[in-house]
Specification:
The protein folds into two domains: 1-40, no CATH class; 44-104, no CATH class. It is 64% helix and 0% strand. It is built from six helices and no strands. The chain has helices spanning 2-7, 9-22, 27-34, 49-68, 73-99, 112-117. Residues 113-117 have low confidence and may be disordered.
């Protein structure tokens, strides 16, 4: 089969089209992908409004903490970023507790193959 696809690249394209259709991709997406016209959005494009707000809170907190510490260099700025992230995480957890629901968006555009290749993140406890 590989030799046939090497001799006739159209076969490879047909097989790719079938695989993408089985994954539920639209004909428009497949056409764009095959002609190299796919545009990749920013990671924040799929975030909910609440996720964007908490991300902004983490960034703002980190920046203000870094400024108050007169942080210079990677180590000090990393420390400020971690503190800012904990502040936003605690705020998110409080909102989720009061609202009794998760604010994390259910949208996930990763292909199943890409998901299976991802390493699981280690959970960190907040202080």
């Amino acid at each position: 089969e590989y030799l046939q696809e090497t001799a006739d690249p159209a076969r490879l394209l047909d097989r790719a089209r079938q695989a993408w259709q089985q994954q539920g991709r639209s004909d428009e997406w497949i056409t764009q992908r095959m002609t190299g016209q796919v545009t990749h959005g920013k990671p924040t494009d799929q975030m909910s409004e609440a996720e964007l707000i908490f991300a902004a809170l983490a960034e703002l907190s980190a920046r203000q903490i870094a400024e108050s510490m007169d942080a210079t260099g990677m180590a000090e700025n990393k420390c400020a970023a971690e503190i800012g992230g904990r502040i936003a995480a605690q705020a998110r957890q409080q909102l989720e507790s009061q609202a009794d629901k998760s604010i994390v968006a259910d949208i996930n555009q990763l292909l199943p193959v890409a998901q299976s290749k991802m390493r699981p993140l280690k959970a960190k406890t907040l202080k």
